[in-house]
Model the fold of this input.
Amino acid sequence: MSSTAPGPGSTAPVDARSSRKVAFASLVGTTIEWYDFFIFGTAAALVFNQVFFPEFDPLTGTLAAFASFSVGFIARPIGGAVFAHFGDRVGRKPMLVWSLLLMGAATLLMGVLPGYDSIGVWAPVLLVLLRFAQGFGVGGEWGGAALMAVEHAPAHRRGFYGAWPQVGVPAGLVLGTAMFALLSATLTDEQFLSWGWRVPFLVSVVLIGVGLWIRLSVSESRIFTETMEAKSAARMPVLEALRTYPKEILLAAGSFVATHATFYVGSVWLVSHATTELGYDRTAVLNANAALSLSDIPMILAFGLLSDFVGRRKLFLGGMALLALFAVPYFFLVSTGNIWLYLLGGLIVQACRSAIYGPQSAYFAEQFTTRMRYSGASLAYQLAAVLGGMAPLACTALVAWTGSLYSVAGLVLAIALVSFACSYLMTETLRSGLTSDEPVRRSVRPARGPVD
Done:
């Protein structure tokens, strides 16, 4: 079974079996990388203020823990730019291997890092440096994994196949949260604080080995190989992407910032706030977040597939409009202290996010030509990540300043409106091709016919 190759001027078939293999490899690799990235956030919410910042009062310690969490997002665009440069010049596959190795090494070292009581100020310093390394590694992950899946996909199913690496995010969160929930339920508070929190970091070494084995088994996409054979790769792809596609990069980043920010509000900040201020049981919240992340998986795939029929832009607009309308009701449900209402609110918010996250790989990839695609897509994604990753820190500061959970609702509403506006200004790309030649400037109106 095959389909027409996703690029004008290319008649090479796309093998459906190869498309599925690459999509699965992208899913496994991204799951492992995001597991490594997210367990830091859970540990920051639960124990890092006591292990690495014990000299501060509880509020300041929590702020410091979330600040260390945010360092990973500052590193992400830097890592994204470096990996994108070589990804457009050398290939997507080697960058995915190196990003996985870097992430694995940093995570393993976190698991054996002594606390403040053992090495003093060096403990938080080294923690921040390792978090920077994590962010640098994951900065190159998304672009490579997303493009491998989209560039190998049949032209009429780029949304669906591009959704598979997106599933790695909730899958990684489920894996990490379930690990912490199991430890929380089986260990005493003293055991969990002393050594239990380290177990998820140490287990990472096994997962990295599995991920490397799978990633080394896939090949580069045909359209990228053709670009390399034609010697048309950009000399400085990141700079060329910024010069050629400034509007596309900024609008794509803006369209994603609310999705990214609300993800970390729910999966990181609320874990801390709900268990310390709203009376929720720690294990119950961890289990609820694992269940919510599990529900994300079918929604992301469904919205990715739906975008192959109705378009990417419509789903972006619908998801952000509903998120803006639901911002205040969501925090009302959370504030009740009822775990079932917590789950209900989280499920609606995640449906809004999945409408964007499902088709995102295809939508971002279709904005750029092959010679600058890794650079353009990664820059857009990681610029949004910088702002979104600051959300737990911003939420903690807002509640401390106002004393009201609804100040966070106001923040969510504001950024949802920003993402809606950026999505409105973007161009529909459903019928566009994945081009390997020089970019063709598009009209601001959605494309109405196939150009593949």
